[in-house]
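Reader question, answered in our methods column.
A reader sent in the components of a multi-part assembly and asked whether the whole thing could be modeled at once rather than chain by chain. We filled in our standard form and ran it. Here is what they sent:
COMPLEX SIZE: four components
ENTRIES:
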Amino acid sequence: MINFKNDYNSPGHPAILKAVADAADSKFPGYGTDEATDRAKQKIAALIGSRGCDGIHFLPGGTQVNLTAVSAFLRPHEAVVAAGSSHVQMHETGAIEATGHRVLLTDSHTDAAALYLSSQAEGASGAKGAPAAQGGKLTADSVRRICEMHTDEHMVKPRLVYISQATELGGVYSLAELRALREACDEHKLLLYMDGARLGVALTSPGVDMGLSDVAALCDAFYIGGAKNGLLFGEALVISNEALGEDFRFIQKQRGGLLAKGFLLGIQFGALFENDLFFKIARHANAMAAKLRAGLEGLGCSFLVASLTNQLFPVLRVEQVAKLEENFLFERWEHIGGDLAAVRFVTSWNTSEDDVDALINTVASVL
Amino acid sequence: MINFKNDYNSPGHPAILKAVADAADSKFPGYGTDEATDRAKQKIAALIGSRGCDGIHFLPGGTQVNLTAVSAFLRPHEAVVAAGSSHVQMHETGAIEATGHRVLLTDSHTDAAALYLSSQAEGASGAKGAPAAQGGKLTADSVRRICEMHTDEHMVKPRLVYISQATELGGVYSLAELRALREACDEHKLLLYMDGARLGVALTSPGVDMGLSDVAALCDAFYIGGAKNGLLFGEALVISNEALGEDFRFIQKQRGGLLAKGFLLGIQFGALFENDLFFKIARHANAMAAKLRAGLEGLGCSFLVASLTNQLFPVLRVEQVAKLEENFLFERWEHIGGDLAAVRFVTSWNTSEDDVDALINTVASVL
Amino acid sequence: MINFKNDYNSPGHPAILKAVADAADSKFPGYGTDEATDRAKQKIAALIGSRGCDGIHFLPGGTQVNLTAVSAFLRPHEAVVAAGSSHVQMHETGAIEATGHRVLLTDSHTDAAALYLSSQAEGASGAKGAPAAQGGKLTADSVRRICEMHTDEHMVKPRLVYISQATELGGVYSLAELRALREACDEHKLLLYMDGARLGVALTSPGVDMGLSDVAALCDAFYIGGAKNGLLFGEALVISNEALGEDFRFIQKQRGGLLAKGFLLGIQFGALFENDLFFKIARHANAMAAKLRAGLEGLGCSFLVASLTNQLFPVLRVEQVAKLEENFLFERWEHIGGDLAAVRFVTSWNTSEDDVDALINTVASVL
Amino acid sequence: MINFKNDYNSPGHPAILKAVADAADSKFPGYGTDEATDRAKQKIAALIGSRGCDGIHFLPGGTQVNLTAVSAFLRPHEAVVAAGSSHVQMHETGAIEATGHRVLLTDSHTDAAALYLSSQAEGASGAKGAPAAQGGKLTADSVRRICEMHTDEHMVKPRLVYISQATELGGVYSLAELRALREACDEHKLLLYMDGARLGVALTSPGVDMGLSDVAALCDAFYIGGAKNGLLFGEALVISNEALGEDFRFIQKQRGGLLAKGFLLGIQFGALFENDLFFKIARHANAMAAKLRAGLEGLGCSFLVASLTNQLFPVLRVEQVAKLEENFLFERWEHIGGDLAAVRFVTSWNTSEDDVDALINTVASVL
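And here is the structure of the entire assembly that came back:
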């Protein structure tokens, strides 16, 4: 079975494993107070153009970063604004609400299946009626509308805009879109928070015009995903807005996210930001996805949503999906109607050209 | 500098690192639904004599296990009963309270420094007036007293007795003591929960008469500590009481403790319970501690509390402590009064006989 | 100014004030352990056909009842299912989320303004194109769809269906609709909870075919609203499902809802369920609303949604609204588009026929 | 049965009931936005010397005030410092912890029974060996010790000092003691919060040298108790520290403490601060307690703790207690040892001289 199921299906990139193995005989202070952690933070600070490292924290997992950040940043009546397809809404079992805060869903979350079907009806053929927009993104205006609806103390107060770069549907915010969100946030005194579980593939996506320093300048806080970009585990939270950072380690500890062997995170992130590895890994995943997309488009496949990152959502007939499942691992994403289903193919640093060729050839044989 | 600071100061035991490296080219399903995880659970189930694996869960860290378990097991008005020196009270930044539950402290927590001083006064000399009891343990009667004080709906309801095996002060419950606690729990409809961050050194401590199956039989839930016993990271929660286990994975996910690369925990625990490694690691740590204790006693040292596990708490004069700090890393534990201080020396799988000899010799030179 | 703003705009019905005054010289035990409270509970138990009073609790306010019940009934990963227009979603500042639970919104909440406009377009004239459905109600199928979307531990688990009888938009569930919801709940192991802040006007609404005993039989828990039906303050929670009732008073106290002078609630509810007062008050409010509705319909008014209870939502032109505001207090509910706005007129036990006539006459003069 | 059980055993003072009755035919806006509420706030502002009323809020009950204030004022890792005998620790079912915060107990809470016994042993006779200190008070030094013990992010951060004036044991802080606490708070950046459920009897206690304006100047926030000082229900929270007050109404609503008929609280507090009623009621309760204390002392009674407010804690033999219970309602407070028990007699605005005489005479007959 060839694996296109997700981007966290193997232990880690060889360079990361080597860095950990190289430290096997060293001894470290606990809880991230070690020099390996300091060095990793300094590398990140240099990349984002930060004066210091006080706002940089390493945590074991993404849900943990999100819930700890929200818990640290918001007062009890303040709410998170997010897309209906966002990770905090769909795949964290109410982790935000468990810290006491509501997630407010914007009207940006339109029904992807319905949009697909209407775009197909407009197009001359399945392959040509391509989705007009990338999925899962918030617009500045949808944020404004949420704020305008929340007018008094009988309602929660929108306070933190949660976006993912890339989104759960592979969409990527442009610099202009991110600036527009920042502007809406400033108008309504909102914090802008970016879930960067897949920040690597977003920043190396073709045509993307922003770097880590732009993200740091425009967001109050964001995290740089490690687990989906080559690490064994670990995510790097960056709190750009100094006022939010006070006592963060207390809350990190309280929520279970301050690892005793914190040095393991420092060692890994140190290696990830050495020799451009972070971006190399992401570029490879994107390249494999681009090759796969081109191959599928060549076969006349249509896609649920447009994606220029490492997740693709082709629409196939159900019996085609079943045949592919004989040799490939991937997600059935969503039933579209009739006998159509969207599936998800995910590429990663460990996806080879042969894997992609095999998938394209098999799709060709089942169409 | 030779490191006696803690038992989580290096990446992991070579056999654990090797197991992870061996899996580098494999691909796994996410969130612990892989076969490596299944095999690790089966090994644990066999050791504890469990029919199945449904109650076994792997989480990244100890504070996370504690807060997730309490959150899963208790209703809002139910409280945890614990010792004043317990980890949940002293070193988790209110993680239990952050889930909404009170920690009730028993009167078992007597002032170790005062006890030490009075025992010294009774003994003929420092070395001989050894502490009569091991520190940090709850007694069945102290649990009963807590229950008797909580009589109506204006007070929280004691519901879960939290003990550590070994305790934060190196103490170990005997099988008789554990049975007595179980009896008190049954009388008052309490759950018995064991924090086993250092369960390995407890079960292999000289004279200890219980095994994992006894722990599983007597506790409603407990965890087997990995990070302090050779793993990179990871703790194995065992929920023996089936009624408590329902929907645990929901709450594990909600609290951020369901790792995407869950297979990393399965791989490590699989190796830990292969070839008796779990117990070998623990026995080595205990042996090094025993050697160190014998050496220090031979020099006439006294100890704050008795400990037969891998943590020792000798009492030294402050200027002696300062001299030791020139060549050794360890914790200053507690000021005793006058110029006396208790320090903490911790041994681990990576402590060598040479390390211990060096420490004994240096203590001899500063006394 | 004549007041149609809400149904909680004066201290209380004279019979309620008299009951409190009559008790002025008596002394009572605290926290609802008094005989007046017992008698009130027995009256309610008789009306709902309950064997005992253990599941009946008096609390000071409605938001408090909702948050305390959810906190008592649900485990951390379990969620509330509610309509988008529901009180817990719109007017409680995230009280449910503050207890840690998500509110899942069904797709039943369609845009009332859009529905109104389309129904008007279909009708021959404004007055005749009446709204086809009552607003704010959940359907059994929308509950089923929510459950079908929540399939694994990465998502919250729907557990409690929250409905209001009457709804925030004046809608009333029929017995058949309530039974259909119960059936959907049974299929998916859900609890059915009814917010009865306006239960009086719902049960006395023309054509309604259910009584308190039906509500008790079909709901796991519900509350009988006092503050909007003649009391100074106070709501009566009935937990029909015995398994949910364990230790409720602990959680009531913890959430601040166990009043020291609980006897005040017992005295008031005792008077409310004497001489049919509860239903008399509600029938009067409904009668005044019916008179007002008939008057407005006679003037050719259309309504945002149909309502047979004490809240009416006529649609007027904005300049008409402004003129009415010179002599009447009421809510501007929602802007409909163009120069149209829906307003809300609420009647109560203290609304007189003269009040209604004055309003109808004034509307006539501004049309 | 004559009632000395508590100070909340009857509906309310006649002047309060009259004020509510006088408003029976008026109509009010909801949620405390009415003029009666404004006027009541202005009276309180005048008494405390406040520029405005923004920091004054009326809530239905005391536990609710405490939990709402803590929820509004603290970040998740911040803790409350309180006495072991405090209301938040002993009688609120973990309400503070349910908002996510730990209550840290100071060492000020010494065992009252043990102190009593030792003071009796020192005195020549029971009556003369009176308790040297009032019970339940925090000292500035005990606050400092708590702060010095909490040194890093593995522990909660002490942030709010909770005191009661008067305490649960009838003790009263002097102005000097309150200033000393303020000084300790300033040293450690702590908030000072006063639970004033019995603030009336404290401020009118013989020898007390502070007024409401002193309380407002020294505390960041405090509340003026209504339910135990003549109201039907209701407590007035004053947030003196403006920085703490932001968005308080959101959190009040979220926690269920924003009453729809908020005007009922405004009407009552308006009457309470008219004609010195607040202080008159409190002085009467104190006078009745003083008369009772003098009578009991004349009979040779000793007391568990000294109290100059409306709660007395005489120590009696168990068989004497049983005889008193034939004609009087009161609390058995604590068993002292042997056949001795402390009981609690509470006076209130509705305690008459005849009630007191009857109790003294009966005690005389059973001694």
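What stands out: Residues 124-132 of chain B have pLDDT under 50 and may be disordered. The two ends of chain B are 20 Å apart (CA to CA).
Send us your own complexes using the same form.
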